[in-house]
Amino acid sequence: MNDDAQHIRKDLAACYRLVAHYGMTDVIYNHITAKLPGPEPLFLINGFGLHYDEVCASNLYTVNLAGDIVNQPASMTYGISRAGYVIHGAIHAAREDVKCIIHTHTRAGLAISAMKEGLMPLTQTAMRFHGRIAYHDYEGPAVDAGEQRRLVADLGPHNVMVLRNHGLLTCGSSIAEAFNLMCWLESACQAQVSILSMGRELTFPPMDVVEKTAHLYDPSVRHFGYLEWAALLRMLDRTDPSYQD
């Protein structure tokens, strides 16, 4: 295994641990994937049956775009999630720029996914996603390969998507970027749920201010996520470095 692939394995395992640390897991469900370097399109995914805090660099599965397991860890007897292949395989096949995909079913994410308005520009955290978020209507559990084309079409060029009545999804040009997007998307959803629960009159900034805020957080303007990622890895290294195993 080359150094780049091993580095991706460690970062992806760290991402699983961080999603667990921040309370964004759904028992053994959901999935995070990272594309591997090389001529053949392959990506890493968790074994379906592991809790996120059990994932480490050595027990990630290598899968191709057809959903076939190319490399199964010797210590693992699990398979992979069918929904993980349907969702992630479709995006990895269609978007060369995407190196990591995170999908969650958090309570706040589910709540926002069921709202007709979707994510509203109620907070600075939410405004960063204005005009940069996609929506995909619910078609049932994502196990039908026929949904892949529609999912990719709805995502378009965006890196953030609300799966209606289902959950949240973020993509990134790196694992750090995908996690950063999910972290702040989840925070924005939690804030919206809290704000709406108060039943008070809402205030919205002028649209030009919302658009300015979104522009300032655009990756082409500000490369966010990298300082945070380094700090998060240091935290994991202090508390439980077993993700590197």
TrEMBL record:
It holds the Pfam family Aldolase_II. Residues 10-193 form the Class II aldolase/adducin N-terminal domain. One of its GO terms (molecular function) is actin filament binding. One of its GO terms (cellular component) is cytoskeleton. Belongs to the aldolase class II family. This is Class II aldolase.
